[in-house]
Write a structure and sequence with these properties.
The structure is a homodimer.
Chain A lengths: L9 E5 L3 H13 L3 E5 L3 H9 L5 E2 L10 E4 L3 H11 L8 E4 L5 H13 L3 E7 L20 E5 L6 H13 L4 E4 L2 H22 L14 H7 L6 H9 L2 H23 L3 H19 L1
Parallel strand pairs in A: 1-2, 1-4, 2-3, 4-5, 5-6, 7-8
Antiparallel strand pairs in A: 6-7
Helix pairs in contact in A: 3-4, 6-9, 9-10
């Protein structure tokens, strides 16, 4: 890698939705780099220029002027995009994908990029909202958040260090280095299961009559039911094994509470609830 | 009922935990009434006096000086308390219980109190936190919250009106009148199930390794796992039928997502997620 910051770095952001848009805005706010952007939706792309999130729009064929390219699209779309446009990227470019699954991307793209002299690294910013699209993007979406990176033995150390420093510079509070497999396994629990449970929760017939009965716990449990169904469908299917594990896990536990309640077994129910309280308190320390 | 505000009303609050303590503080802040309090824990009672949440401590035998008595204890404890001390209450007193289940309380206490000339009304403030005890009580815990009341044909209208106005005066944003049965049915969904799901969620082995992988959705889904196990055990057991309904309901839905993912059926998965999104968006309007 031959990035020399004094030369004036150019960063390309492809896909200007909530994550890509926020990444472009954060890079504008916290670095002096040139930020180029692209989105298949011309209205989104136009909005990004007008709001100054990107210095200019650069079509895929011209991304060769960028030393760093960030992709923030759906998984399949990202793989297609890279296969189609890798030929235009310059040797030494660092390409980092930001979508929510990493095994599929790392498997598909690391060697392919390597053969073209491009360094592919998987990344996943642990930030999001119950909304999507450029209109909700925000330069401070990543403040204090964790940035997950999934390098492996094929990743040049200097490229990894450069990217990690860049993320700290734009506001992330920590870098979490892990493998693509461990990323997908953990994300099945911390993010994917939360979206499934929230979506399932809201389907009770009682939800239709909840006005006046809603407290903080209901609001928390159903917040992320308002999700982007197309994106999450793809993310879930690319993480089938880990996510099924997690759904099975929570159903096993729900059944334990159900059984204790059905048996009117106060001692067992107390034990189950107290165990959950203890785990949560220990994790929060 | 013969409450005349110009006489200087006295309100007694029995049980000075999070809800009782906050109720006493709110009454002090937003009314000119005398607030008397009691708690079986002498340290809690002392703290309530020192912080001015109650004007003075009044043992159960002296609650006859109060025109309104609020109980904020566990269900069984409340029934025992009323049975033991009803003899000391003056005729015309309004007694409202604030715990999280209502059928059991209304069934046990309405006629019993009525025979003693005391008006019993069920109530449930839709506010709470993932903590408990007087130390976390707050005069503004109820700001804009919903106050549920469960009157029935035995409830004098003027007593109900008086209490509803009192709750609006201390900051509640709305009064929700319903039956004790409908209360318990709805609360099984909006509050009890949320606590069960949160407690079950945190039990995945992956929870132990979640540092660096946690985003807002994980935090929301697990917040209320930090619960008071003794109180919730009792509340769940007093609402067995409704709560089992709700646990069964969410498991049925979780199984639908699981099946779609296991079958790699993107169309069905999209449909399930989009339906959840649509329901949530409609309810939020």
């Amino acid at each position: 890698m031959e990035i020399n910051e004094s030369q004036g770095l150019s960063v390309g952001v492809v896909g200007l939705g909530l994550i890509g848009g926020s990444m472009a805005k954060a890079l504008q706010k916290y670095t002096t780099y040139q930020i180029y952007g692209w989105d298949i939706d011309s209205q989104t792309a136009q909005m990004a220029v007008e709001q100054g999130a990107v210095d200019r729009l650069v079509p895929p064929q011209e991304l060769g002027s960028c030393q760093v390219i960030l992709t923030a699209m759906y998984p399949q779309q990202t793989v297609n995009f890279v296969k189609e446009n890798l030929v235009y990227f310059q040797k030494g470019t660092i390409l980092m994908d930001l979508c929510g699954v990493k095994r599929y991307l790392v498997d598909q793209l690391t060697d392919l990029c390597g053969e073209a002299g491009v360094t592919f690294i998987g990344g996943h910013p642990m930030a999001g909202k119950e909304c999507w699209g450029f209109a909700d993007s925000n330069p401070d979406l990543f403040q204090k958040a964790s940035m997950i990176v999934t390098p492996d033995e094929r990743t040049p150390k200097d490229a990894l260090t450069f990217m990690e420093n860049l993320f700290l510079q734009i506001g992330f509070g920590r870098i979490t280095r892990t493998t693509a497999a461990d990323h997908d396994s953990m994300i099945a629990f911390t993010s994917q299961l939360a979206h499934i449970v929230s979506s399932a929760y809201i389907k009770s017939p009682r939800a239709q009559k909840h006005a006046g009965f809603s407290a903080g716990s209901y609001k928390d449990l159903t917040r992320v039911a308002k999700l982007n169904p197309q994106m999450w469908t793809e993310l879930f299917l690319e993480n089938q094994d880990d996510l099924i594990d997690e759904i099975d896990e929570i159903i096993v536990h729900l059944d334990e509470y159900r059984e204790a309640i059905a048996n009117h077994d106060g001692e067992r129910l107390y034990q189950l609830l107290d165990e959950g309280r203890r785990i949560k308190e220990e994790l929060d320390q």
